[in-house]
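Format notes (please read before filing issues)

Several people have asked whether sequences and structure tokens are stored in separate files. They are not. Every record keeps both together, in the order shown below: the sequence lines, then the token lines. Line labels are part of the format and must not be stripped during preprocessing.
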Amino acid sequence: MSRNAPWRQTNWDWRAAANFMGGGAGAGLLIAAAIVSAPGDPFWPHAALALLLIGGGLASAWFEIGRPLRAMNVFLHPRTSWMTRESYVAVALFAVGLVTVLVAPRSGAVPGGGALIWACAVLAAVYLFTQTRILAAARGIPAWREPALQPLMVVTGLTEGVGLMLVLAPVAAGAVAGPAAVLLCLCLLRGLAWLVYLRRIESAGVPPAACAVLRRASTGLIVVGHVLPILLSFLALQPWPWPTGLGVLAGVVALAAGWLLKYLVVTRAAYNQGFALPWTPVRGAGDAVAGPRPGWPNGGT
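Then the structure lines:
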């Protein structure tokens, strides 16, 4: 292979992917718990788990840094860096979230329309948005800068959040029917968003090596990560004697599929665009032609 051809970056490894996994799932859980929870369902278990996931994701990204003490520099560029904006939102989200967890009575619930719950949900939505913008701002990675990835990341985070609600249902004594119905719809929407993203990156001329990684995983993600939780969610809505167990299984599968999707996009499909010449230089007489772009469809011409 030519040294100019696209190659897979390794600076962002599984630890960077873990930030998007934990952050997206935690933010989605806060949003889902505020909107989908039935009256009387406790909010504090969802908030506590969400903060643990978001904090774990940020910690994994921090450990990825070769010189961790330089991590404080992330707060210095709010006008230009989406990572800086993510950090500011995270600070506000943790402040409000911790207050919510401490205020919520252990034996009851914070009222569904409480200001703290909705403040957590709004901040979580902003946090989820900043994460999508971090990938979009990495202009050197074609699979990340594709605009179709942003709605896919948003709907994936929401799907993971509702899935976590179902996983927590036996512990938090939460309702199953509402989250199961929402998960069914979100899995369908995520499957469509995934197919749109695949089509867009292939038509946009993303390096074939990146497309091949996602194409190989696509069938499994569609069948196991989307169709299966849809079926399990549908069964959880039926008058079976074990709806909670079916809901938990649907949530686990939906969550695992979302995390696998993010891992593949962030680490395995992260090919840069390589080097290219806009035009091939010509000495003397002759016509200049488009330069080669190794590793791109048709040589990039």
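For reference, the curators noted about this record: The chain has a mean pLDDT of 85. The domain at 14-279+291-300 is CATH 1.20.1630.10 (Formate dehydrogenase/DMSO reductase fold).
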